[in-house]
TrEMBL record:
Organism: Alternaria arborescens
Listed Basic and acidic residues bias regions: 20-30
GO MF terms, alphabetically ordered: DNA-binding transcription factor activity, RNA polymerase II-specific; transcription cis-regulatory region binding; zinc ion binding
Spans annotated as Disordered: 1-41
Subcellular location field: Nucleus
GO cellular component: nucleus
Domain Xylanolytic transcriptional activator regulatory: 190-266
Domain of life assignment: Eukaryota
One record GO biological process: DNA-templated transcription
This protein's name: Xylanolytic transcriptional activator regulatory domain-containing protein
Keyword Secreted among UniProt keywords: no
Length: 516
């Protein structure tokens, strides 16, 4: 594929086209009305692939030479002086403020494995990618106690740049990074950004970088691409759990199963250990979804409960391998280790949700012994999530900094405990209202104590959980008075009062940041 011509736009003449009066005319309307270019007159050209086998898209490119059909590594766009017209030069924010935000983001980056900003200065970022500049400034402002007004400027600028890039053919790894940053930290647009990032990375063949690395002697660029793909895989499977939707990236592919080989080939670097722990975890949770499906009204039949218990055993083995394997990070302390433990307890809570799907809330107190058993496991796991979040120093200090999925885990656990205590499930010895109120109140107090911009998710979680606690503490209000599941990212939430509503993650409003 190395002899392919450089990428051009649809409007430019493809390679091998003979100039003529037909080129550029459709014969049935003005040029502005055309959605596709006219079929050009092509002269014979040499094949772009000397193998008898070729991807259908490659064959189509050979025949048509339409540049936008070309697959593989997309050439970077012509080097431009982006800095001369970015939002900082336009003085939407001051350069001194941007420098401060850049410094803030460098620390935040290590919550996302330290791979989102490969530049040592703001000047270098601005020269490379306006979108990456806007992304890191927006996220850093969100985590700045004095950053509210700056965030209101950076967030819409970032969205504008993302929307403007949707149909741009020439993209770079900085675009992928910019999209990942938004997907990891901006709750209101996370799902949309993640899907776009995955599709773009696939078009750039990031999913194939693992194979180049595993052969040995890979270029640093291939290692970088493989790691960015792993980050997308991790967040995709987190998002699948968060939203109750299928993951876009399959867990059955070799790169998502041979994490130990990837660790070895890269000499046991910390970043690969951290990512691989997550890849291994979501390998387990994806198997559970594959077996039991994604229908929230379909529970686990009794004859399948032993199989589900087997997945709990796999989680226990995962914990034994990864629970203490991550070293302390110089920037975020023991967050990698403590975050792995948090993920373990949350994954156990998530697996319990399969048992409760489709069961009416009123049925739970008189449920079968097996369901009661999973109820006790769920209560224990949820309580462990909240305890870790407030008792582990590096998790508590990371409440402002951690990606939104971790906030979702904490919220998920708190809401489950409140609902379980309100209906007395599984029994009063396993969960009681005073103990739950005390534990959730400790969590709310920690959330409120954090220092971030007023738009940060921690404050919205604190407000929402306080509302839940009022219902729990009032004996005159039953579980139906708990806030109804909100519409997540525009989707219609079910109004059925089922036990699965205990496990809804959308108990906080996925708000529009810019209106706050």
């Amino acid at each position: 594929m190395s002899d392919l011509p450089a990428l051009n736009s649809y409007a430019q003449t493809p390679a091998g086209v003979e100039p003529g009066p037909e080129h550029g005319k459709s014969g049935h309307g003005s040029d502005e009305e055309d959605t596709l270019p006219p079929a050009p007159i092509l002269t014979p050209v040499a094949p772009v692939d000397d193998s008898i086998y070729s991807l259908p898209i490659n064959s189509l490119y050979e025949v048509t030479r339409l540049p936008t059909l070309r697959v593989g590594n997309v050439l970077p766009s012509t080097q431009r002086n982006y800095q001369s017209h970015d939002f900082i030069t336009r003085r939407l924010i001051l350069e001194a403020a941007a420098e401060s935000l850049f410094t803030t983001f460098i620390r935040l980056d290590y919550f996302c494995y330290g791979l989102m900003c490969p530049y040592s200065t703001l000047r270098d970022v601005r020269a490379s990618s306006p979108m990456l500049t806007a992304a890191l400034c927006a996220v850093a402002a969100l985590h700045d106690p004095d950053g509210s007004s700056v965030f209101k400027t950076c967030h819409p600028e970032y969205q504008r740049l993302v929307m403007g890039s949707m149909f741009v053919v020439s993209q770079s790894s900085d675009t992928i990074r910019a999209l990942i940053i938004g997907a990891y930290w901006l709750a209101d647009i996370s799902y949309t950004l993640l899907g776009h990032a995955i599709r773009l990375a696939m078009r750039l063949n990031y999913h194939l970088a693992y194979y180049a690395v595993i052969k040995g002697g890979a270029e640093q660029e291939d290692i970088m691409k493989a790691r960015l793909w792993y980050i997308l895989y991790i967040h995709d499977h987190q998002s699948s759990i968060f939203n109750g939707r299928p993951a876009l990236i399959s867990a059955s592919e070799e790169p998502h199963q041979q994490w130990e080989a990837f660790i070895r080939i890269n000499e046991n670097q910390e970043v690969d250990l951290r990512m691989s722990s997550q890849i291994a975890l979501y390998h387990i949770t994806s198997k559970v979804r594959d077996v039991f499906g994604g229908d929230p009204s379909q529970g686990v039949p009794n004859h399948s409960l032993p199989q589900l218990r087997g997945y709990f055993a796999e989680l226990d083995r995962w914990y034994m391998i990864w629970g203490n394997r991550m070293p302390r990070n110089a920037h975020v302390g023991w967050f990698p280790r403590d975050g792995a433990i948090l993920n373990y307890h949350f994954a156990r809570l998530h697996l319990c949700s399969y048992v409760f799907r489709g069961l009416p809330l009123g049925f739970l107190p008189s449920a079968s012994v097996e369901v009661q058993e999973f109820g006790r496991t769920a209560v224990t796991s949820a309580a462990a999530v909240l305890s870790l979040a407030v008792e582990r120093d590096d998790l508590r200090s990371a409440l402002v900094g951690m990606p939104i999925y971790y906030h979702a885990m904490i919220n998920f656990a708190a809401v489950f405990l409140i609902k379980a205590a309100k209906i007395g499930f599984p029994d009063s010895t396993a969960v009681n209202a005073p103990a739950v109120l005390s534990q959730v109140n400790d969590c709310v107090r920690e959330l409120r104590a954090q220092k971030a911009s007023s738009q940060h998710l921690v404050y919205h979680l604190a407000n929402g959980l306080e509302g839940y606690m009022k219902v729990l503490s009032d004996p005159n209000q039953d579980v139906s008075m708990l806030p109804a599941p909100m519409s997540a990212l525009g989707d219609n939430a079910s109004t059925l009062s089922t036990a699965d509503s205990i496990f809804m993650l959308d108990t906080f409003d996925l708000f529009s940041y810019v209106n706050m």
